[in-house]
Design brief:
By secondary structure, this protein is an alpha+beta fold. Helices cover 16% and strands 40% of the residues.
């Protein structure tokens, strides 16, 4: 997919997110626009719900009332997305579509950057985001499969180990 392809947020009627996704994908296919509209996503997360003492795995929408669309913005793609049944508007000032920033995409968990970490155990790192932003700690473990590092920090005078994503630590 091209560099011009960006993520946009579309507001939908609440409860219609999956229907909007299906309708949009059908319209994209019918019009042969797969080269312009790459993905339509309803972000969900698995949760465990306990009802009447029974555990049940449930998929919950992370952003109810919203659908994410990765596309190249043209008059035609705008028209197809905007006129999908159930879509109320694009998110942006005066319904003018504004693409998500790279930081927003990463923080929302839509796409994770492919990061190769050149940090080893026992090296000092600075945390550059999140609740420990600005803290310095010692790397205790590197997990390339989960793309995380375990860092030992001093929190309230006590040595505490925290697991952090690669993209929020920086070698000193």
């Amino acid at each position: 997919m091209s560099e011009d392809c960006k993520w946009y947020v579309v507001h939908t009627y609440s409860g219609y997110e999956n229907k909007v996704k299906a309708n949009m994908e059908k319209a994209i296919e019918n019009r042969g626009m797969q080269e312009l509209i790459d993905q339509v996503v309803v972000p969900t997360q698995d949760t465990i719900e306990i009802k009447n003492g029974v555990k049940k795995h449930v998929q919950r929408k992370i952003y109810p009332g919203y659908v994410l669309v990765k596309m190249i913005m043209t008059d035609e793609t705008w028209f197809v997305v905007r006129n999908t049944t159930g879509v109320t508007s694009f998110v942006g000032p005066a319904s003018k579509p504004i693409p998500l920033t790279d930081e927003e995409i990463i923080s929302m968990g839509i796409e994770m950057p492919n990061i190769e970490l050149d940090i080893n155990v026992d090296e000092l790192v600075r945390i550059i985001a999140g609740p420990f932003d600005g803290s310095v700690g010692n790397v205790r473990e590197v997990n390339p499969h989960k793309k995380t590092v375990t860092v030992s920090l001093s929190v309230f005078g006590r040595e505490t180990q925290v697991e952090l994503d690669y993209h929020i630590v920086q070698r000193m």
